[in-house]
Amino acid sequence: MLNERNPIPVVEAIKQVTKYCKKGETEYIELTEARSRVLAEDLIADHDVPSFDRSPYDGYALRSEDTTEVMKNTPKILSVVGHIGAGSVYHKKLEKNQAVRIMTGAPIPDGADAIIMLEDTTTFEESGKSFVSIRKQLQHQQNISFKGEDVKNGTALVNKGTVINPGIIALLATFGYAQVPVAKKPVIGVIATGSELLEIDQPLEPGKIRNSNAYMMIGQLQRAGAIPQYYGALTDNLEESLEKISEVMKEVDFLITTGGVSVGDFDLLPEIYQELGADVLFNKVAMRPGSVTTVAAVNDTLLFGLSGNPSACYVGFELFTRPIIDSFLAKETIGIQQEQATLAVDFSKVNPFDRFIRGRYEFKNGQLVTEPAGKDKSNMVHSLAMANCLIQLPGGTEGYKQGDKVTIHLLGE
Ligand SMILES: Nc1nc2c(c(=O)[nH]1)N[C@H]1C(S)=C(S)[C@@H](COP(=O)(O)OP(=O)(O)OC[C@H]3O[C@@H](n4cnc5c(N)ncnc54)[C@H](O)[C@@H]3O)O[C@H]1N2
Ligand code: MOO
Ligand SMILES: [Mg+2]
């Protein structure tokens, strides 16, 4: 048990946490439920797409050699021997000077090697028979959508670990995935702590506040692709809290608590970790907000002791819990996307610790620019609502100036 608090660098803290990465199992779900889930197996084509040569136009299928004598003012007349739409097949072989009227998507009849568009033809009837007048010469294989031109059998299409988007859903449907193998979502318990907390349906009372962190984290967990399991708020009572946390740990893959990790008289988490015999990975990180963020492990179950201050809780989640979710889902990329952006305003507050400011980014004249989303104190909630990124300002002895290049962490909204 760590009693002293030695701040460790953020990257070191992330490294400590990711040692406990565990990969979840695979489950099969309906294709209609697959969007935003993580593909658990490589998607490899098991047939050509299209699986037959087909017409890209509404027109006539013909033998290009029958069009060699077509001149500008002397069209060629072909006998129309069939009529097929997409989904139908012309079963005979096309003979000399024959054509089949064909619609987009229909298979090229045997013997035909080109398609002429309807616009380049005139159809007429004579003695109860159909004919088409061809006004254009065609080349061998002209206007054919070839078997396998889109995807060749055996092509690796999408890697496992990729988040499924509507385009991938189109591929999965093309290859007949009625059930899709996806990474099972981790179940993550959420417990709020603090005798001051009211539930969201309770009226305010003197000295009390509504529990916003638990609901915020439920949203963050859903955004990250996990299943939140909310176990309510605990009052500052050691025995009851210890009992509840020990019980909940058995039901979840990971557990997050918010509040009670600092040095206050009612901050019970340090003692709870001790009672649990937990291995405390760190209890101070060289960052603002969230310096008191604590992560402990009981066997392979991580306990994320996030701060009670809303902004510190939010940042602690994004930096430390999100990578664990990504690795449980076996995502190709772990952690939220980082980019370089230009600071749009001065940020003069100096801090020896790295700062993660709730920010907004946008493109201006092709450049990514960013600025704080609102007031920056860790006990504030308002700026969280406006944030679409975290602006990382490395600790030091000087502030930052408008125009400085900074790293931003995109929250994925
Ligand atoms: N003497 C010191 N005091 C404090 C230190 C320190 O190093 N020395 N650290 C400060 C920092 S930094 C932070 S951050 C907070 C962390 O406090 P805890 O994680 O122990 O959280 P609590 O004390 O339980 O609550 C802090 C604050 O947040 C409010 N809170 C708690 N839970 C919720 C919730 N579910 N929804 C909304 N708001 C919540 C709570 O009412 C308090 O106002 O400690 C500083 N102090
Ligand atoms: O560093 Mo505390 O965790 O936000 O203000
Ligand atoms: Mg406290």
Find the CATH topology of the largest domain.
Molybdenum Cofactor Biosythetic Enzyme, Chain A
Give the distinct bound molecules: ligand LQZAQKY5, molybdate ion, magnesium ion
Instruction: List the domain count as a whole number.
Output: 4
What gap, in angstroms, lies between the N and C termini?
38 Å
Q: How would you describe the shape?
A: elongated
Helix content: 10-25%
Weakly predicted, low-confidence segments:
none
The CATH class of the largest domain: Alpha Beta
Strands ordered across the widest β-sheet: 6-3-5-4-8-7
Percentage of residues in strands = 25-35%
Largest sheet report? 6 strands, mixed
What count of helical segments does DSSP give? 7
State the total count of DSSP E strands. 24
Structural class computed from helices and strand pairing: alpha/beta
Radius of gyration: 32 Å
CATH architectural label of the largest domain = 3-Layer(aba) Sandwich
Indicate the mean pLDDT: 96
| Oligomeric organization of the protein chains | single chain
Corresponding CATH superfamily of the largest domain:
MoaB/Mog-like domain
Quick overview of this protein structure:
This protein is an alpha/beta fold and 413 residues long. Helices cover 18% and strands 30% of the residues. Helix 3 runs parallel beside helix 6 and helix 4 packs across helix 5 (269-276).
What would you say this structure looks like, in words?
The chain is an alpha/beta fold. The protein folds into 4 domains: 10-25 and 184-328, 3-Layer(aba) Sandwich (Molybdenum Cofactor Biosythetic Enzyme, Chain A); 41-50 and 150-183, no CATH class; 59-134, Molybdopterin biosynthesis moea protein, domain 3 (Molybdopterin biosynthesis moeA protein, domain 3); 338-410, MoeA, C-terminal, domain IV (Beta-clip, Beta Barrel). It has helices at 10-18, 166-174, 213-224, 238-249, 269-276, 310-328, 382-386; strands at residues 26-30, 43-44, 59-62, 76-84, 98-102, 114-117, 121-126, 129-134, 156-158, 179-183, 187-193, 197-198, 209-210, 227-234, 254-258, 279-282, 287-288, 294-298, 301-306, 338-343, 354-364, 367-372, 389-393, 405-410. Strand 18 (294-298) and strand 19 form a beta hairpin. Helix 1 (10-18) crosses helix 6. The model has no long low-confidence stretch (mean pLDDT 96). Bound molecules: ligand LQZAQKY5, molybdate ion and magnesium ion (MG). Magnesium ion binds at residues 260, 262, 264, 267, 308.
